[in-house]
């Protein structure tokens, strides 16, 4: 088996196709562990993983924690608050203290883009970016790619539509990098206020109407709307947003008949996705994403701690 | 002390002089400038063969941080950085703590500068009390105390009516008003130039129009009130275009840019290195090209480095929390000389943008080597190769993205009022 040639997982932007394939294949081989009666293997016994979360997260933190525990690593969760940034300990000091305790991997989520990169430049341990600002969320994109591959048998040649607040979405950026590298055609849609400038230079086609983006799509990925964006005049009201950007029974028919619907969660039911689509097993693979998430994170922890040494 | 500078190429744009000359300094003044001055016995002679002698360089936009933020810089350390970078005069922005919005702060700065006794330090007073954009400061009193310009730098005057009154009131005192042009509503929350790199880095963008809108507004206000305005640190193609057309219409608009705006683009931010975080932000390749064009065609009158020293604690944090600024006084001339190396500006024009042009804008009787003027002189070694070493900065601010950069040409002798304040003639770097 090939080894991952990097110390850290900071983003998909700097990941090669071979590395993505290695991670996905490793994750696929770990899927089975989560179905066993005893969901634990001794692979990472004696290794420790710190989950350093500066931003609230239930799903991602739990997923990393379960991934570590299923591989027998000791997982430690630290919830820090960015509100203490002014008077509290700096990220650099926190990093040096954690480093001194000699863990093997630090998983970090932070509201400031680039925070994992700062951490990675300071400590010898492996850093996994579990989401930094609007920058990247590599483990999410990997689990999304794993899910698409699982459901569609391939990624290359598929049309994938990402719909919603692309401007503020790290999930969108990581998926744009990953899916494009793997040969998919990526399109994005959302009101112009949610579209980052020069997004076309990332190699995607941008639409302002949901219908245009999801036409003939194999995969439709709906992004979560942060409710507080309403106050920033990114959109006038949830009501109007839902009227035009909510995936529902009618507009889903524009996609391919066998299209799958994805969402990184948590869902705003009735805002970006109607409940009957979210719960429809013919379309929705949202819970498969969550299941694959554990396997992808197991693969990352495994590969970063030396893989098959 | 009498000093005779021999054999240098003397470039004095104020008299359109570019020739091999000797310069005699007596009693702190230029006593003579002609070919082959004979040295009398009481004169120390400095052989400057192969060197450039220029009027003392002036940086009209620096932050000296004192009072209040001495951990970043003091007036003494900033003055030392100035003379080491070849600057004989600097004008310091009022955003200290407290803000330089009254006579006592201005007098304090001048006293500290006199104690440091290195560069000439000229305080710039705040336009509004506390630079809060509500109530005008006492321009008259501040002028008597020694300010030579007004600015709310960093906290631009957002209220157009207040800006109008500031320009009108300042014009009756012949005080230049300097505006940092940034519409704070358009830039709100932004951390870097809005564009492709902000998009891929996931950092909130500051659009170029945040600068352009206020440049346009202030030009219109200056035109209407028949006053003059100086635009600080121009960073966008749009601002260059607006200033160019204002000048073409005969308006009294002047403008400066900083070395980082013609040297770096927003692409440099890819590693989230906070040393590249400045305000206004580093812009696109097209903007950099426009800045160079603006320098070449005279739209941009001045190069000023916006020296913004910071402590480590201000920069060694997440990008979002890092403060804006580059400690620039010791790299400004080296970076600006690249404009000459690249053929964008002839050397005399570069020197004009760093001496007589800022002197003219600030109403200073400096930036000239004409007989009888203050003997403020910068000697430049045009070929000396050196490497930027932030650890060797005189400035307390080591925050420079140019650390390790190779440079060609630097100031080797800085003379202020006839006294040598920096001597790097014998240095190898």
Q: What descriptors fit this protein?
A:
heterodimer; A: alpha/beta; five-stranded parallel beta sheet; four-stranded parallel beta sheet; globular; B: alpha/beta
Overall average residue pLDDT of chain B: 97
Name the beta content range of chain B: 15-25%
Radius of gyration of chain B: 21 Å
Question: What is the N-to-C order of secondary-structure elements of chain A (H for helix, E for strand)?
Answer: HEHEHEHEHEHEEHEHEHH
In what range is the share of β-strand residues of chain A? 5-15%
The biggest beta sheet of chain A reads: 5 strands, parallel
- Cα(first) to Cα(last) distance of chain A is 10 Å
Q: Which segments of chain B are poorly predicted (pLDDT under 50) over 5 or more consecutive residues?
A: none
Tally of individual helices of chain B: 14
Describe the structure.
The complex is a heterodimer of chains A (309) and B (429). Chain A is α/β, with parallel strands linked by helices and 309 residues long. Chain A is built from ten helices and nine strands. Chain A has helices at 17-30, 59-70, 91-100, 115-122, 138-152, 170-181, 210-214, 238-245, 275-278, 286-304, and strands at 48-53, 74-79, 105-110, 126-132, 159-163, 185-189, 205-207, 219-222, 260-262. In chain A, strand 3, helix 4 (115-122) and strand 4 form a beta-alpha-beta unit. Chain A is globular. Chain A starts with 16 loop residues before the first helix and ends in a 5-residue tail after the last helix. The model of chain A has no long low-confidence stretch (mean pLDDT 93). In chain B, strands 1, 2, 3, 4, 5, 16, 17 and 18 form an eight-stranded mixed β-sheet that branches. The model of chain B has no long low-confidence stretch (mean pLDDT 97). The interface between A and B is medium-sized, with 26 and 21 residues.
